[in-house]
Sequence to fold (465 residues):
Amino acid sequence: MVTAVSSFSNTINNFQGTIEALGSKFGGNGNTATSGVAGSLLLPPSAGSGLTLDRMVISNEVHFGNSLAFGTVVVTNGGKLCLAANPDNYEYSFATLNILSGGEVVCIGDVAQANEAAGGSSANPYGRGVSITATNITVASGGALHADRYGFSHKTGPGKGGGENTGAGHGGYGAGSKSETGQGMPYGSAARPTTLGSGGGYSSVDTGSGGGAIKLAVLESIVIDGRLSADGGISTHGSSYGGSGGSIWAAAGTLSGSGVISANGGFNNGGFCGSGGGRIDISETVNNFSGTIEALGNFTGSKGNTATRGTTGSILLPQNGTGLRSDLLVVTNDLYLGNGAEYGKIKVEEGGSLYLDANEGYDLFSCDEVEVCDGGRLVFVGNCMTINETMGGSAAVPYGAGGTLKATNIVIREGGRIDADAMGFPQKSGPGRGPGSYQGAGRGGAGANRDEALVANPLATITLR
Fold:
């Protein structure tokens, strides 16, 4: 849909009403392949009491679809600034962007962009999100800078979910992923990610859209006390598939605050196939951020291992700052990592839990030293979808696999633990499953009341390692 062009750039703008150059309204729960995006809106530099480029206070909903350079922009309680990624018009610059409690800035992805730099093509577009440059960005507690649900829509995208048995992939795998079709598979890059998340799949039901993409290039500081996110959406349908998480790439002098940075897969409502987490790269910052960083796969009600969960996406960390770092990774709460990387020292302190997810091909975690303190836990999360041919698995009967931790030294203090407890195949699944009401599962030993025809025996049950 071609949208109108609005220009007030040669006026003294005292207008207090609504100015719009919207595309067609979004259907479903976010971005769609059939929605138009906002057109261009030109404003005067400074003259007038209404919207101007030099200073703008937003208290209602305003859409822009053309690259613009702003001065100071303040989004107040109830305000909503929507920035759309049109072809060659996806870059917005600010001297200062302040998002107050109750305000939000929404970044709307362009699903038609090939994004060849990230690996996409005209035949298989990866989409592209919004790029924001600024001197300073502040998101207050209760405010949000996000691209939630503004990636690929239902059953679309390079890692789309399909049918009733595949969650969407992006940074992590979707449950039931199929390498031969690409459904539910990872794509894009962990470093400097710009790709959109893919939509979940479930028959004809309008399921969750993938997360969008946000690039932040900030000269001085990014402060996130609220939310910076590119989460996948969920469907309002009772048996829903969420979309996969999108992308966040932040480069700044310093990153600080105590809020949330996330690119999570959308929550999976009906016990159906979950979607993978997205991609987060903050490696080009001095990280003083003390809040939560997540690229979780989409879980079915809890964070335990299930056959229907999407796997964790990618997170890249810097080597400087007081927050999470790759040279000294100190874990004090829950942290999920889904991309194999090299670290210096990993220290899991009391109350901390570090989860290493086994994304196939990205499951090697290397470090100089690991220390698990009293009350700390390091957990290997198994991937039930891995075939594991080396151990005897096949496409028809996957044996699953866990991750690998390569270290020079590993120290487990009294009261600390490294485990993979309950992180293998879930109930009534796996090559040695106990299928009946009175049959135990086999693995290294035979399950009680085993049925030889159903391989509940020790010889054919080398599963998660």
Remarks:
- The chain has two domains: 1-325, 435-465.
- Confidence is low (pLDDT under 50) at residues 1-7, 453-465.
